[in-house]
Amino acid sequence: MSSDFETYEQDFATLTAEVTNKIGRIPKLSGEEKTQLVLNVDKQLEEVRELLEQMDLEVREIPIQSRAMYNSRLKSYKQEMEKLEKDFKRSRIAYSDEVRNELLGEDAGSSENQLIKLREERAHLLDNTEKLERSSRRLEAGYQIAVETEQVGQEVLANLHSDREKIQRARERLRETDANLGKSSRILTGMLRRIIQNRILVFVLGAIILLTIILAIYFNLRGH
After folding, report:
1. Out of 3.20.20.190, 1.20.58.400, 3.40.50.2000, 2.40.128.110, which CATH number does the structure's domain 2-147 have?
2. What is the Cα–Cα distance from 128 to 122, expressed in whole angstroms?
3. What is the mean pLDDT of residues 144-157?
4. pLDDT range class, residue 106, cuts 50, 70, 90
5. Exposed e or buried b for every residue in 111-145, given b needs 16+ CB within 10 A?
């Protein structure tokens, strides 16, 4: 699983290097060449976003004990992506201003207020876009926390189930031990009873023999 993540990392590094180079070239170009470069960068940024999504999915499949390291790497890649998007937005704003100035030509001076208003609306739109992106990242972080919590809960339940089975086995062994102790106790009680009975019998027999001897001696003495 980590090998797939590392493959995505290599693709990410290659793509972001190309995008960074192209964003730096945008201000130096003009006309159709600049338009094509802007469209190409926009397409490659979409590919980078898809790569990040794949990397995010891979991280969720990595065991929890190894996931922290990959999460940290993924976070740095997302931050790099945010920087690229901001740089690209600035380049696109400058590019849009150039195109508008070319189209307006001499009338640009007379419509300065309209351009200011358009810039304000564009800045407001970019601000809203960034807010949406931050909300989306928070939702992704919340979802990831929920997934990790679910996995931890499943592991806890599995451990509890295992502990329950161990306790049940221990109880069964304890019941077997109690049964064996009860059986042993009954056997020992029976043996003790027989020992007492045998001792009483020996005592009675001894008393009878002793009495017989005494009587025999007594009658012999009277006969003489």
Report:
1. 1.20.58.400
2. 10
3. 66
4. very low
5. eeeeeeeeeeeeeeeeeeeeeeeeeeeeeeeeebe
